[in-house]
């Protein structure tokens, strides 16, 4: 969000005031408000924790040198990238492109990069989970089997992630999270993450829980032949705060091998 705000601010500053359409000014002020609100949330977070939280907690640390590494679970050699996507244009990038086009500014699209989970991702993803799911989520255990993970980056922003537990039971693997940031959805990102996780664990059944109200996720899983096995009432009671209006019921789905 901060990167988009900076781009928009530079665009407005590069032209005369009377040449800036009112809708762009309104959009800029709305973004500025949201960034200010997020900064306030950050200071609240820092005030309530003893951890050393980076002020740019949504922005990743700089990428170290691209090298292959050995996965501790299967001892496979993992490449630095799962895939580099130069074609997909999510709604957020389409909007940025249109703004630059209206102002006759050049716009260089960067690729969307799918990677395996790394240590530098953990703090950012934990924060995203706290914002979009519920407090207390820690995905650091997934570092033990990064070959069953996928993290999606645009520049230094995490825009999506997915994790699979390969040994949830003797015969089943379990997808714990698949998430794409708002503004980056409906572009096939979640679809590719799900496909990637399925391909990493083809020898077992794959199971997951999904909120009963999450129709878009249910449709996605149905396209990959997941079948509902059980409807669990109040499944999310132990995760969602009592004041939340989110649906507390879940479907238990299975993809048979």
TrEMBL record:
Domain N-acetyltransferase: 112-254
MF term (GO), any: acyltransferase activity, transferring groups other than amino-acyl groups
Gene3D superfamilies: 3.40.630.30
CDD domains on file: NAT_SF
Membrane-crossing residue ranges in chain numbering: none
Signal peptide: none
Highest taxon in the source lineage: Eukaryota
A Pfam family that the UniProt record links to this protein: Acetyltransf_1
Protein name in UniProt: N-acetyltransferase domain-containing protein
Species, as recorded: Cuerna arida
